[in-house]
Amino acid sequence: MKFINRTTIYALLFLTMLGSAFAQKVQTDFDHQANFSQYKTYSWQEIKPADSL
Which one-letter DSSP state was computed for residue 36? Predict the structure, then answer.
């Protein structure tokens, strides 16, 4: 069995993480003329915390 040193393992881990970081493409778009003052906040149900610290 061939010995793999730490530098090789760290390099492979780094390249894997680098590849996954650039693999994502995110696009967003929104209406600049939207009137957000008509929206209100709401809750589906009353939330009661277990511990009221």
Answer: G
Torsion sign across C-alpha atoms 20, 21, 22, 26? positive
Task: Measure the CA–CA gap between 33 and 44, rounded to whole angstroms.
Answer: 28
d(C-alpha 51, C-alpha 53), whole Å? 6
User: What is the residue whose two structure tokens read 């008509």?
Assistant: 38
Residue type for 12, please? Answer: L
User: 1 pLDDT exceeds 50?
Assistant: no
Residue type, 3: F
The residue written with tokens 């209406």 in the block is 31
Structure tokens at 50: 């277990």
